[in-house]
Design goal:
11 strands, binds guanosine-5'-triphosphate, OB fold (Dihydrolipoamide Acetyltransferase, E2P), alpha/beta, binds magnesium ion, Rossmann fold, four-stranded parallel sheet, 4 helices, 2 domains, 24% helix, five-stranded mixed barrel
């Protein structure tokens, strides 16, 4: 136990001044940011001082490799730090919002973070004609696109996606019902995400 010694950990969840951090052995601590600061975001590497078995104080935030922002009409706020890649999942059912996808592309581009677009649910072939022009448009812009069916072809999906996720801290985004949890369960065996 590293009592009273500083160590660096990664922020895995935040709620204002309260957060959770994980050290390099995988141990999770509750963390309080020193002072009145709310400058910690998910993905940050932070210098911690242990205050009890389960608690640490965050002393400082290490320099960020990247910082992704989320914005709406009203405000812009930091969403995640040190992300290597944004992976966006979309599908034709329930329905996708192209505006959401364009916004995500812009946000990743602005933060200088590579983006991977995953079109899921290719098994619903009757929607193919409708979605094809949109996919062509994305490709013309130079986006990387992978098309998969996480439930109909799980093995193929895993084979296509695993090399693209391996060794990269990836932020998985997408509207509800697109298949994020299904894909995560394929790629991370102990994820057990509800779908
Ligand atoms: N037909 C079809 N259905 C799929 C596929 N992948 C996922 N689904 C289904 O789509 C539904 C939503 O999948 P989830 O993985 O829960 O979607 P999600 O993006 O995590 O949704 P939220 O957690 O609400 O944001 C589930 O019923 C899945 O079984 C696919 O490739 N084809
Ligand atoms: Mg989900």
């Amino acid at each position: 136990m590293s009592n009273n010694k500083d160590f660096v950990a990664r922020v895995i969840a935040t709620h204002g001044k309260h957060s959770f951090v994980e050290d390099k052995t995988g141990k999770i601590f509750e963390a309080i940011r020193r002072g009145k600061k709310k400058d910690v975001v998910v993905g940050d590497l932070v210098k911690c001082k242990q205050s009890s078995d389960e608690q640490v104080a965050i002393e400082s935030v290490e320099e960020r490799k990247s910082l992704l922002y989320r914005s709406d009409e009203f405000r812009t706020k930091p969403l995640a730090a040190n992300i290597d890649q944004v992976a966006l999942v979309f599908a034709t059912r329930p329905t996708y919002n192209p505006r959401f996808i364009w916004k995500a592309i812009l946000a990743a581009e602005t933060a200088n973070i590579p983006m991977l677009i995953i079109r899921n649910k290719t098994d619903i072939t009757e929607d193919d004609n409708q979605v094809r022009p949109f996919i062509d448009q994305l490709k013309e812009l130079g986006c990387s696109i992978v098309e998969v069916s996480a439930t109909a072809y799980p093995k193929e999906t895993e084979q296509k996606l695993f090399p693209l996720f391996e060794h990269r801290i990836t932020l998985l985004i997408g509207q509800s019902g697109m298949g994020k949890s299904t894909i995560l369960n394929l790629l991370v065996k102990d994820a057990e995400q509800k779908t």
